[in-house]
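Hi U.,

Before I forget, here's the chain from the pilot set. I'm dumping it here mostly so it's searchable later in email.
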Amino acid sequence: MLFPAFKNKISGYVNLDTEAQKWVQEHDLSIIPNPLLDPDTCQQMVSNVHKKYNLDFSYGGWLEDRSFLWKGSYLDETGGYIHLGVDFNVPEYTEVASCFDAEVVRIDDDYPIEGGWGNRIIVKHATLPLYFIYAHLDEDLICKVGDILVQGQVFAKVGKTPFNGKWFPHLHLQSVDSVLYEELIRTNALDTLDGYGLVADVTKNSLLFKDPIPFVEW
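Structure:
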């Protein structure tokens, strides 16, 4: 159970880029340079979506184009708007538990970078050649590098803005192929890894960053 506090609650898939377009039009905000770059405004949009669909929380984002949602952000520089992980839209301080046995291999924080990972924990799956990135976490972590997490163990909480990379509160979960991750570590290039990629790289990235959904339960 990824979020113990949300056991038996109602969740659903949401395409935030599509919902963002609807919300901006409904609120007549199209004349404003992307209002959703403000975390509080973006959270209002997400809360509105949850109310509209009668959801306690939502998820989605793997390989989705978010060129509307994040226009005007740092992603404009490369045009890489394809989301490589899954976002779980839950409130700040929501406890996060491991859905599988894993080892904590890295903990870092890129605050005060805007649009960054914030507090980030990377774990190595106990039986599969995959690493998992948990990002936009609270500063009060409940684990350390070298810890062995067992299925169901709480090890972090969802962070709040601005310490989570200055995003609206949510958990970003991204899988990374072990060959790629270990090469990034070997070459000291982990800082080049992002949560977004180019449209032209979708096929390649679908293999390097597999959909995390089959590996978690909530």
